[in-house]
């Protein structure tokens, strides 16, 4: 079993992993308890809890110190007329010493073997030690009830859960009673688990951002080049088996339709297409919505068109764009791409209705993209992000936390709609085969299995049919309370991604997400394993805390794995690329011998 960094006594105060992978080794709570018992005969009270505070951050001297020897706790109802204010607060006294709303930001993690609940509040990390196992169970039940009621605004009863999740998602409402055979069935079809990234995550290359321009996003290529997108232009770098290296040409984007000199702002999205010889750049307009895209010829470094989004003769906006499928950027003649707005899901065609491609030089007006397929929903969908599978099916995440699955043939009605867990989905990804979905929220990632068997026993995914009530409970991927604080002030997850494959029969091996100064890596096979030690003795939805961290000295812009073709015989995975505003670093994962 993986040792708990708080439960075990540090072999030495200065014991550290290497600079890239940080694991804290503070003093054990058991040792502190023993000292307190020897100093204070009144310490053991039948109902007394003990409160500890973590001090020292990630330094070698980090440790737990007693904050309250005779602490009390309560879940307090602070109902008010403001419906947006949380109802339930966790208060730990006397004082109260801690008072925080019961929500996912607490990052609460229970450790039954130590009768302990760790959580983050007010920028600090706390541990509450309960006197008995029964008291810890009662604490967890009360916490889950208050979390449900704060999240959904309904009572945590059977009726309330059914109202939130519906009959088909009983496993989400009561995970302890869920049937995990769907996960087990999926595991049987997988390749043997790859080695998890460990101390042998090695830095290979590091590049400075060119021309003093800060990096805003990555556009990774599967062929010769990848691209660092900045405010003034796009830096070209070479793809190698050990990462990104070597500055190439810098594409300066001045904007301007036919010499009109229209303003250009930093793209929020860069999309490679047509065998990675072309790129679409979508710059945010008002409220992060765009009314068009710049079409760049990568080989010449010039903007060849400014396309405008239009439907039925009226200008419209898009929130996001994506390739038609996982491997579409490699297709040499692709002319379509997907678009998403709050209540729109569509496919755009860069060939106009008359079959003639309009360019900057042919008109003083922007060419208009052809709305070739899609649906404009009346209201209420609040789409936020989307991604496509290998066959072109589409997964869409929403502000209300819902995740919808659309087949490649219809964008009008979702085949499957997973309920939200209360947090907006800010980013979504899907495996090439469409069997697994990874949703990103501010405080956790959610991993969903889409596999089910129809009435004839044939295996399908939720993209191709209605899953019915055989829907497994999802897995959550979280930071420990300590890491959620150490990640920095901007400690919200973003950009959760699977490793990158574009072939049938290939299996993604890892997941990666960015949070503050951390790039966080999970072993995909390990997360899916129902018998994984992380899930033992857990209540509610199972959460995986077994991950490795790449720590940078500034907030990370993006973390993504290169295409699987760049994996070598010495590595189970292609290199990991981590970008900060001024640097891009590449790491390889060496096989354990």
Automatic annotation (TrEMBL):
Domain Vacuolar import/degradation Vid27 C-terminal: 218-536
Matching Pfam families: DUF7135, VID27
DUF7135 domain sequence ranges: 23-166
Name of the protein in question: Protein CYPRO4
